[in-house]
């Protein structure tokens, strides 16, 4: 459970961060390479730390939920057969062939958004005020 009393180390949505993310993240790599924020929770800024988390399944398990998520919520070797089944669908050739369809879907979704008025895509979509089927 998150500790709501924790003081954030950074604010990834701050204007100065959004203005120059490279500069902000370079600074975090030196000042606070493992940082916590209300928005992103834990963020790692150094390559060696990211690689350790990705490769050390004993310490940093993907199986963090009591609800099974295949394969992202699994660690090797349990997730390996599932990954082998889905990997071909994410090959360069498969992605190249899906690109026109993906672009059409994205274009249709953007075209269905309300015009000239502010909206929150999550809240408005969930409340049924608009949908991709409109």
| Biggest sheet: strand arrangement | 1-2
- Listing every helix as H and every strand as E from the N terminus to the C terminus, the arrangement reads HHEEHHHH
The share of residues in helices is 40-55%
Q: Based on helices, strands and strand pairing, what is the structural class?
A: mainly alpha
Low-confidence spans: none
- Rg calculated over all Cα atoms: 20 Å
Strand content: 5-15%
Q: How many helix segments?
A: 6
Task: Characterize this entry briefly.
The chain is mostly helical and 134 residues long. It has a domain at 1-55. 43% of the residues lie in helices and 6% in strands.
Give an account of the 3D structure:
The chain is mainly α and 134 residues long. It has a domain at 1-55. It has six helices and two strands; from the N terminus they run ααββαααα. The chain has helices at residues 15-19, 21-31, 47-55, 80-86, 92-111, 121-126; strands spanning 34-37, 41-44. The protein has a two-stranded antiparallel ribbon. A hairpin with a 3-residue loop joins strand 1 (34-37) and strand 2 (41-44). The model has no long low-confidence stretch (mean pLDDT 88).
